[in-house]
Amino acid sequence: MATSTEKDQDNTDLLVHAYLDGELDVVSGVAIERRIDAEPAIANQAAEIRALRATLRTRFPREPLPPHLRLRIDNLLSKTRAPYRPTWTLMAASLVAAIALSSTSTWFGLRTPPSNALTNELVDGHLRSLIAQQPTDVASSDRHTVKPWFNGKVTQSPRVKDLSGAGYPLAGGRVDVLDKVAVPTLVYNRRRHLITVTAGLVTRTTPTTMSVNGFNIIRWNDDGISYWAISDLNSTELIEFTKLYRQPP
Predict the structure, then answer these.
(1) Distance CA 211, CA 240 (A)
(2) What is the pLDDT of residues 16-75, one digit of tens each?
């Protein structure tokens, strides 16, 4: 009987293979990517799998299916397929289902707030920073280096705070694109977690807290600029970070 350690190893092996095959969802892919970066044993396993695949592709190239075999398979499939003749009942049911689906889609299109598109873009940007080897364009813990770097690159001038004394050191900044507009994004660290703070045009006047795909998001407005703080940190720590960030200099 397999022990829990052996089962965990089996699960890790499957996750690594699925990750290299591109079969994992974004959140799971980010998780296994972090483990590959942090755990040498898993990194070696991933490197061995990549090397094996490269060797197989080089020494055993995929051969095309012989024409006569493809023809036999096509003939066999054509004989086994039953002819499809929709009845009036099925056609009516399909029509009702299509109308209902169309109505539902229209309702969702009318009810979905346009801010959801911005939220999705922000989450995608945060995910890219988790996957990328370097999550910033300018890497510095000095706010006097990061803030001037944005000059001439974006229209908003974000607040850049030094929060290292509270356990949220500045990692740097980068330029993202939000709703087809270049916007500044700051990156802070919290233990092994990242916090991205993006500044953009004002969208709402009241602070908002939400959770999207496992990420906590806090949105607020200061000095005519909207801010979004995103992280997989627990909501308590992200709220604490936001309060510290919003405090006057």
Answers:
(1) 16
(2) 888 777 777 767 777 888 888 888 888 888 888 877 777 666 666 666 666 766 676 666
208-212 sheet: strands from edge to edge: 138-139, 170-178, 181-190, 193-200, 225-231, 215-222, 208-212
Domain with 22, as residue range(s), is 4-59
Asked whether residue 124 is assigned to any structural domain, the reply reads yes
Return the C-alpha torsion angle 48, 54, 59, 63, nearest 10: 130
Beta partners for residue 173, in sequence order? 138, 186
Residues contacting 206, CB < 8 A, separation 6+ = none
Q: What is the pLDDT of residues 165-215, one digit of tens each?
A: 999 999 999 999 888 888 999 999 998 899 999 998 776 656 788 888 889
